[in-house]
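To: structure subgroup
Subject: Chain for Friday's discussion

All,

I'm putting the inputs and outputs inline so they're searchable in the archive.
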Amino acid sequence: MIHIVFQPADENVLQKVLALDDSLQGDIVCIKDDFAVGPIADIFSVQGIELRKQWWREVLAGGDHAGTVDDGSVDDGKTVDEVIDKLRSNTEESVWIWAAQNKHDVSGYYWLVSQLQEYKGRIFILYLNNLPFINEKGNIFYPEHLFEIPPKEFLKAKKLARPVTASEFEIDTDEWAKMGNENKGVRTLEGGKKLIQHDYDYYDSELLKFITTDWQKVNKLFNTFYSKSIITTGDAYMLWRLKLMIKERRLDAQGDIKGLKDFEVKIKSIESKD
């Protein structure tokens, strides 16, 4: 049994789950890329893969994760190839895809399942879509991410595992290809497994709500943004968008414009607009 998740924090909690249930024993694989952002046109071609890598190089340039595109620490294509090798060499092997109701997991699911059509009947999905769980305080809640669920609660979730159907393989693969052809940069989850695409500047206006006329360290700005906004995405993407707004002279900045703690921003002053 191969378990696949889409966030390192999910991998950590699933390791605790497997320790509680021998029937779930198997390898845990984490898909590390965030397919909810960035180009996905021709994503399985050599050209499409390189286009996405080049985009990530631009996004991560100057930040804490610069260089990770090429250092081998993230290679989801290789990860899936290894999973496929195991499926080919062992006809009893199966894959369980774990996903919660968020754009990151669902986008990753579409990317992944589009490569596994050959193994119908051996690919299972556990989509924890709008399902109630009990948190550590004993209260009912609806998790947005797998890592929010206490390990013991996962033992109930395993009953939801079902094979990805032949029609899902066909429809979801076609939908992923269609989204690639739209050439958009942001994907959000509308409900169920329905993704909606937007332009690359989708999050800009929301972030701008928290930028004031006073200087703010970017890490503090982001802390406010994530605590108060419901329209968010990852740090790397938001930092890239912030740097673009500075480059376009929409914001003032001071300091070394690299990582979250290296510089400050504020609303552009009248003087600096001249």
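Points worth raising on Friday:
The longest strand covers residues 95-100.
The two ends are 63 Å apart (CA to CA).

D.
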